[in-house]
Amino acid sequence: MNTLLEISGLHLNAGKFALKNINISMARSDYFMVLGPTGCGKTLLLETIAGLYMPAGGAIILQGRDITRLPPEQRSIGLAYQDSLLYPFLTVKENILFGSRGRGKAGDPQIRRHLEQLVEAMNISGLLDRYPAGLSGGERQRVSLARAIVKRPPLLLLDEPLSALDPRTRGAMQELLRQIHLREGLGIIHVTHDFTEAMQLGTCMAVLKNGAIEQRGAPCDIFFHPATVYVAGFLQGENLLAGTILTINGRRWFRQDNGPLLFGPLPLDCGAAIADNPGSQKRKMLIRAGNLRLGRQPPESANSISWTASVSRIALNRTHADVYCHGSGNWQASLSLARWRELQLSAGERVNLWVNPENLHIIPEN
């Protein structure tokens, strides 16, 4: 991997809160999502990378250069906050060029050419002579992004840039961020509390909890194979069961607590290997809603684990239908809209639910 940023053993004490042993490695081609709830340290991490806080320990290496103790202006890093923080007394053009003007580079022909390309690509060329008070939320955010990248920094830090936007504007901004990432060749670290946003944009992801990284990896791997109950819950693990790992005739099974269901035999790659660890065999099991099948007839495959339940309610989304059922527990299955139209389900109807063993994932209870 052509490493752009290497963070190792980063510690920061900020009053009663601390960043603890942060380790991140990313390439220029990465769109790195940092996901976590409010107060977990996401913004503090960005500001430490940007140089607004000095860490108590660890190292930050950007393009092979140790920037751990450098001031912000010597780091070549762009930073854009959730609130666009534009100067109200400057025009859009003056806001974008503000940092360059302070360093005497606003007249640099390369920066001017890049400005022309940026404002055209970001559809703000008609706004250059306007003031921030006359801009919409989406326009302000695009201006803020242009200001952060006009000097072509190798790394762009984004602090929840989409959270204040309406759904339509948010979708357009997501596409714009993808284009910026690819066209500008920027490495991006983007923090958010929205796991859907993280899944749609990220090529890699870290989930933050109380100032420490709980899990990192490819978004798809974290989504389907969360390492902890915290990660599963934050990524909206729809069917999360408490139970016990059993060994029957040399094979591992998961027995549901307070219910009749027995799931298995468990494949080795479903997380069941953690049952070899000493201590309690109490575990959680995750079945993603998209992997829980539903129909009026039982499954055809003899390997499927099946049971019956009653439909409680149905929630339609733009891309799928969530069907909530009750029977041997509470369940959520996600159907394509085509499958939902085919079944024409109604509340109270009895249905068959089933899952294939390869779609079971076992998680430590603590």
UniProtKB/TrEMBL annotation:
<dbReference type="InterPro" id="IPR008995">
    <property type="entry name" value="Mo/tungstate-bd_C_term_dom"/>
</dbReference>
<keyword id="KW-0813">Transport</keyword>
<dbReference type="InterPro" id="IPR050093">
    <property type="entry name" value="ABC_SmlMolc_Importer"/>
</dbReference>
<dbReference type="InterPro" id="IPR003593">
    <property type="entry name" value="AAA+_ATPase"/>
</dbReference>
<dbReference type="Pfam" id="PF00005">
    <property type="entry name" value="ABC_tran"/>
</dbReference>
<protein>
    <submittedName>
        <fullName>Molybdenum transport ATP-binding protein ModC</fullName>
    </submittedName>
</protein>
<dbReference type="InterPro" id="IPR003439">
    <property type="entry name" value="ABC_transporter-like_ATP-bd"/>
</dbReference>
<keyword id="KW-0547">Nucleotide-binding</keyword>
<dbReference type="InterPro" id="IPR027417">
    <property type="entry name" value="P-loop_NTPase"/>
</dbReference>
<feature type="domain" description="ABC transporter">
    <location>
        <begin position="2"/>
        <end position="235"/>
    </location>
</feature>
<dbReference type="GO" id="GO:0005524">
    <property type="term" value="F:ATP binding"/>
</dbReference>
<dbReference type="InterPro" id="IPR017871">
    <property type="entry name" value="ABC_transporter-like_CS"/>
</dbReference>
<keyword id="KW-0067">ATP-binding</keyword>
<dbReference type="GO" id="GO:0016887">
    <property type="term" value="F:ATP hydrolysis activity"/>
</dbReference>
